[in-house]
Amino acid sequence: MHRLTVFNDAGGGVDAIQRDLGHIFELRIVPLSLLQDTAPGQFQVFDVNLSDGARVDEIKKWLKHRPSGSKVVFAIDKTSRAERIQAYALGATDIVHRPVGGRALLKLLLGDFNSLSLDTSVPPLRFFPATGPVLSAMENAFSSACLGAPIDLDSVHAAGDVLVQCIESQGLGSWIGNVRRHHSRTYQHSLIVTGVAVAFGQNLGFSAQDRENLAFAGILHDIGKARIPLSILEKPGSLDADEMAIMRKHAEYGFDALAPVPGISKDILDMVVHHHEYLDGSGYPHGLKADEISDLVRIITISDIFSALIERRSYRRPMSGEDAYQKLLELGSKLDTELVREFQFAAGLTVASPEWGPPIYSEIVNRSEPRL
Ligand SMILES: [Fe+2]
Ligand SMILES: [Fe+2]
Q: How far is the CA of 224 from the centre of ligand 1 (A)?
């Protein structure tokens, strides 16, 4: 667990920080008088009085020794321009307004992965009973991957079980309907891939163990995106060649994050690192060919592409199920054509599309290939 040091002597409360971030960081709340006894780390927050010139000098000197790439967040009063200027002059990477909310801080420290439920214009995903545990498991896993902290496999397994039951009892359409009400991108994508892959496995008559593996891999397949800069991950429009090269690293980053986890199965690792491989050898990261790509990987790949196509993206409308399936067919020998044929029934294309609802975002045009 990474350490987050909060220097606090401005009288601001730290309850919200402790409540929201206590399980993610090793938290230390330190009075500014102990600054010199504390080593700068990757994450620090200053909620201190910046009107004292001597203290400001002290902070400035201390921050010179901070590790490169570290985060320094200053809490300021919303109305104080002087504090804002002072904070940035000291080297703030971000500022946050008092009173400091734990979730706002988390967003600044870790990026957008944890901001899923902050949008109050839509019902939070956790209001739907079956999606709650899956979302929590995913949030925690992404936060851990982001921080290089251990990933809690048990919660992912438990979430996978819930999801398998949900798909069995309520069907894929209702799962996608629930997930679609939410605004997130990476999480929404992974949630839909998971549902689609589990429904696919169910349709193919896979064992409970294999369906759970598919759920597990669906939840975690893009976990390597936790290490991709948000400027690339969330870029509206096409990625250039350099950005695409960075984006493609997510498959190996995912493997790196999961490989050291005790008890992780080879099948899961295989699905995570190879979900962008194509049978004709044109995929990445290893350019595997037909026989080198397992059935489970093929299933995740098909589910991944289909899900990306039916999702809303900032740069295009969501496709209907039928159009997305057509795109799968167009990929020809890149995918396992027999599995693609089977997939038609798994996704219930003839009935499911209307359930998923019409595209609700009309501002968008298709400008680039789906970002999977
Ligand atoms: Fe991916
Ligand atoms: Fe994906």
A: 8
Ligand nearest to the CA of 254: 1
Average pLDDT over residues 273-277: 97
Same fold yes or no, 3-110 and 123-356: no
Please tell me the distance from the alpha carbon of residue 29 to that of residue 166, in angstroms, as a whole number.
42
pLDDT at 110: 64
Ligand 1 centre to CA of 256 (Å) is 14
Report the DSSP beta bridge partners of residue 28: 5
Question: What's the pLDDT at 125?
Answer: 40
100: left (phi over 0), alpha (psi -120 to 50) or beta: beta
The topology under which CATH files domain 123-356 is Hypothetical protein af1432 (1.10.3210)
For residue 272, which ligand has an atom nearest its CA? 1
Ligand 2 mean position to 197 CA, how many Å? 11
Domain locations in the chain as residue ranges: 3-110, 123-356
Residue 129 confidence (pLDDT): 52
Token pair recorded at residue 187: 């999480």
Distance from the alpha carbon of residue 151 to the mean position of ligand 2, in angstroms = 19
CATH 3.40.50.2300 fits 3-110, yes or no: yes
- What the block records as the tokens of 271 is 């699905």
